[in-house]
Amino acid sequence: MIKVNLHTHSNKSDGVMTPYELVRKLHRDGVEVVSLTDHDTISGLAEATKTAREFNLGFINGIEISTDISELKVDFLDSINNTIHLLGLGFDIEKFNRFTSEREQAKIARIKQLIVRLNEAGYYIVPKNIIKKKSEVAKLLVNRGYATNVQDAFNRIINNFYNRHIDNFKVSDAINIIHSSGGVVIWAHPFEILLGIKKQSISINQIDLMCERLKSYNIDGIETYYRNYSSEQKMQLNKIKDKYNFISSAGTDYHAKSSSEKSYYEIDRKLIKEVIKLKDTTEK
């Protein structure tokens, strides 16, 4: 058996720890292979990679991408308000940046306009540097006392001024960019999707249909092993994985927001080779 975590978050998105602190924590917990999969950003990967080398820990480049599901055309979901999360694993950072640089500049321009609108509405924030993420805006609102925490800033303020879906990738775009960057794409926590900012559960039959549609866009696999999934859920996902010839991934969606969070998933050592379809990073 081997301890891995291919789904983690640092403070570069909505986690608590810095990339350094996160990797150090996982190393101390006996994790052998980790991926940092911050939401829609790879800004923490350089620091995480350096730290993993320091601790001789297997590291895989990662990201968690919020995606628009309209292409999937499933009638049990809202094509506007529902989103799914796709994990990109093992991609080349430079290639990924080339493919996404234009999108990133457009997003920065939208965030700049968001700040203008907030100031016009009486939320006086003056950033010292160019802001690239909405979470940075949220932190400014917290620091100025307009919100109690980052989530409160999003819920009560930012979401009233910024269409949270406008930055989402289409499923096909997300998959193509990760593949073109040399990585694999995993559907994260398939039993849980998002409806706005809330989680929504779907059935195994609905997951099956989603996988059929995702397969047509050449997705590589699903997150079969995920924090509190029951034995039955894991068995069901493994059957679907075999049905569509997918690979499996394992992660806990670790944010370090509470001491009760599980920092790793223990799986069969042979599975890790299937997960990444890359060289065996578990060998020291």
SSE layout and pairing:
Blueprint (H helix, E strand, L loop, with lengths): L1 E7 L10 H10 L4 E4 L8 H10 L3 E11 L13 E8 L3 H28 L13 H10 L6 H12 L7 E2 H10 L3 E4 L4 E4 L2 E4 L2 H13 L4 E6 L4 H13 L3 E5 L13 E3 L3 H6 L8
Parallel strand pairs: 1-2, 2-3, 3-5, 6-9, 9-10
Antiparallel strand pairs: 1-11, 3-4, 4-6, 4-7, 7-8
Helix pairs in contact: 1-2, 4-5
Commentary on this structure:
The chain folds into two domains: 2-96 and 170-276, Metal-dependent hydrolases (TIM Barrel), CATH 3.20.20.140; 102-161, no CATH class. Mean pLDDT is 91; it is low at 278-284. The protein is built from nine helices and eleven strands. Helix 1 packs parallel to helix 2 (45-54). Helices cover 39% and strands 20% of the residues. It has helices at residues 19-28, 45-54, 93-120, 134-143, 150-161, 171-180, 204-216, 231-243, 271-276; strands spanning 2-8, 33-36, 58-68, 82-89, 169-170, 184-187, 192-195, 198-201, 221-226, 247-251, 265-267. It is α/β, with parallel strands linked by helices and 284 residues long. Strands 1, 2, 3, 4, 5, 6, 7, 8, 9, 10 and 11 form an eleven-stranded mixed β-sheet that branches.
CATH topology of the largest domain, what is it called?
A: TIM Barrel
**Biggest sheet, in brief?**
11 strands, mixed
State the order of secondary-structure elements, H for helix, E for strand.
EHEHEEHHHEHEEEHEHEEH
- Taken together, the total number of domains comes to 2
CATH superfamily of the largest domain: Metal-dependent hydrolases
**Class by helix and strand content?**
alpha/beta
Structure annotation, total helices: 9
The tally of beta strands, per DSSP, is: 11
Task: Name the shape in a single word.
Answer: globular
Intertermini distance: 16 Å
User: Judging by the overall fold, what is the CATH architecture of the largest domain?
Assistant: Alpha-Beta Barrel
Query: From the alpha-carbon coordinates, what is the Rg to the nearest angstrom?
Result: 19 Å
